[in-house]
Structure formats: C-alpha cells, structure tokens
C-alpha cells in the first residue's frame, strides 16, 4: 500500500513538470499566427465640402418630351413605289421628296386632259389668258349678223305693209324670218356658254391630272427628321397609305402633370430647367407655354406643356425628363455636392459624410443639377465633407485614410 502511494506521487510530479512547458508551447503557437497577421490598410478617399447656393424655389416634376409636330405622311394618289429617298433618322426640309411613285400613267392622263382643254379652247376661238365674250365666237357673230339682217328686213317690210305697198303675207314672212334669226342667235349664245363650261371642265380635268403627277412625289410637310419609314421599293401604295412619319424636333414639348395642390403655382411664362438620363450632368432650359383647361379626373393633376429649344438635336421625342419649374418666389438656401459624391443603395441615393477618420452614410433626395453639382436634401449640413471617391465601395462606419479635401491648399 505504501509502495502504490509512492508511485502515484512520482507520476504526479512528472506530469506537473511537463504541463507548463506544453502550455507555453501552445501559447507560443497560438501567438505566432497573430503576430504574423497584418491588418488591411484603410482605403484612401478624397472628400469635398458641401456647398451652399441661393436658389429660387422650384417645383420638382417629371414628364416626357414630345415632338412639336408629328405627321404621318400619306400618299395622295396610288401607284407603285419606285424610289424611297429617306430612312429612319434622315433630316429633311419642307418639300423634300420622301418617296417617289410611278408617274407614267398620271402623266399620260394629264397629256390627254391638256389636249381636250386645248381643243375646247380652239373651238371657242379664245386665246389663253383672254377674257371670254360669247359675241366673239364665230358662230355667235354669224348668227347675230343674220338676226340683225332679218330684223332690218322685217322693219322695212312692216313700213311697206303699213303704207299698202306689200301684201300681209310678205310682212308675215319677214317677221317669221326675224324671229327665227333671233332664236338662232340665242341658240348660238347658249352653245358658246356651254362650250365655255366644257372648256372649264376640261381645264379642271387637266389640273387634276397634273396634280396626280405631282402627287406621285410624296414630300416632307415641314423641316424635321424621319421617325419611321413605312414604304419599300416595288410595293403598291394605295391612296392614303402612310409611307413615313416625320417629326418636327427643333423645338420639343415637355408634357408635365402638376398635382392639384400646386396647380395655381404654374403659369404661362414660368422658366423650366430639365435633365435627362441620356445626358447626365447637362441641363436644358424651357418655358411654360400652355396650361391645361381642366384637371385629369383620375390622377387629379393639371397637364401643362413647356417648349424646349433643341437646335443641337441632343434631345429626342420620348425622353423621360426630370423638370424643375421656377416659382419666382424669394431665394432659399440649397446644398450641393459633386456628382461623384452620389451613390446608390437600392432605389435610394446616398452620400458618405466624413466623421473623423470614418465615414457615415446619409440617405438623401436629389434635386437640381448645376455646373456638375447636384442639389441634395437630407441629414447633411453645410459644414460637412462628403466622399468623392470609392463611393460605391464604402460602407457606413468604415475607417478611411482621409486625403486632402478638394480645393484644399
């Protein structure tokens, strides 16, 4: 029993002598990876100061740009398409040929109508441009001369009859010849009038035939651009077929719906500033030209239209636009940050404000854009600085290596 106790004590002493050494080794092994690990350096980020501007209050709205005029150009006559001069996007001037139809058949009809008109004109003995006088027609002149002669003979015979020199039968014959001559003269006058009416009809037919020839050249109704081409060489184009859609786009219409609560603030002549996603950082100017007469029943909004100059062609009909209508009231303070400072988080916009060596995320609402800076509304102060680099990579509360603020000396 004493022997077993001695062996137990010896084993316990041996175990205790090894435990500190193993613990130290284990601690050293655990410490080595920690010592060898290196912390990732904070990203270097530049900041810019929030700027404050005095601006007149505006009404922020959204709308759509539309062409000042849109024309579905249709064929005024029928025919085979022989030539298509335009295509989508072609710039055209008023009167330019868009599509050419076969003109051979209308040209032949025009020649026939011209010949009929010339024949009727020659029959009447009237030269082109002369005023019509039925008494100048040869048949009418001859009938008038015969009538005058018959009337004179009847007058002489009457005097002789009354003097007893001739019989009553001679006077009756002379009077009958005068009446017949007068009737022939009136018939000649009527014939000449009918001939003149026929000439007018023939000339109208000739004019219609010439118009048909002209209509085979389908032309642009105004200066603009071709939005659609709907004709192909070789196809038959019936009268009324739309061969192209032309839009007038030197001036565009911005169509906006104003909420009922703000309807009284928007009047004709108010200035409008707008932006489109196709040209980020660029603003365009317009003026309110038309205000709707009544509200839309379903949306309770008032439709208005502003005209926007588009001589450079940067804007296109159909663009969605964000518009700011100047209300003309007293100026207010507005905060602006560089466009590069704006990030996105889902459907929200955000900026990162400097707080020491960290950044804090602030959700903001965007407003007007002026000279590359964007108006923001939210929990941002005029004294704040916002990150302008790595905005899409930053997170709320992350440490950064602060570079000098833009514009710092």
From TrEMBL:
Molecular function terms from GO: efflux transmembrane transporter activity
Gene Ontology cellular-component annotations: efflux pump complex
Multidrug resistance protein MdtA-like barrel-sandwich hybrid domain location: 70-247
Keyword annotations of the record: Signal
InterPro entries, sorted: Beta-barrel_RND_2 (IPR058792), MdtA-like_BSH (IPR058625), RND_pump_MFP (IPR006143)
Family: Belongs to the membrane fusion protein (MFP) (TC 8.A.1) family.
Protein name: Efflux RND transporter periplasmic adaptor subunit
Originating organism: Polyangium jinanense
Source species taxonomy: Bacteria, Pseudomonadati, Myxococcota, Polyangia, Polyangiales
